[in-house]
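Sample entry (154 residues):
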Amino acid sequence: MAKTSAGILVYRWHKNGPELLLVHPGGPFFARKDKGAWTIPKGELAEDEAPLAAAKREFREELGLQITGDPIPLAPVTQKGGKKVLAWAIKQDIDISSYQSNTFQMEWPPASGKLQEFPEVDKAEWFSVDIAKEKINPAQVAFIEELLEKLAHP
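Predicted structure, serialized as tokens:
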């Protein structure tokens, strides 16, 4: 069965229009990937966890920061691998200069028997809409487009 994740697309207003907060996954699989590899802060739902609560928990875990504000529900997307992603947009101007990601362990290099620790998120950045659309996982572009539509027609 495909997994379900929940996340938050944070936006703020900049002189040139909205900016979007994206994160780059840590670990060796994404180390040399850029375009199409970034994502909204998100993660899998725990059993019986409310999706919005999971999204806020994952935001805290991946960035070490609190998210507040009124969530705007966005239509779910299904990524290439089959994972369903539920998302909300929240307007908040967050200082990400001192973000702190939690970590995970995995055997690396493969079949080496050595466990290494990696950050869940190795970069967090604000992007203009055009750059965010290039950087984000292709399925998640729909979140950006829906948010822009909702901002244009509240």
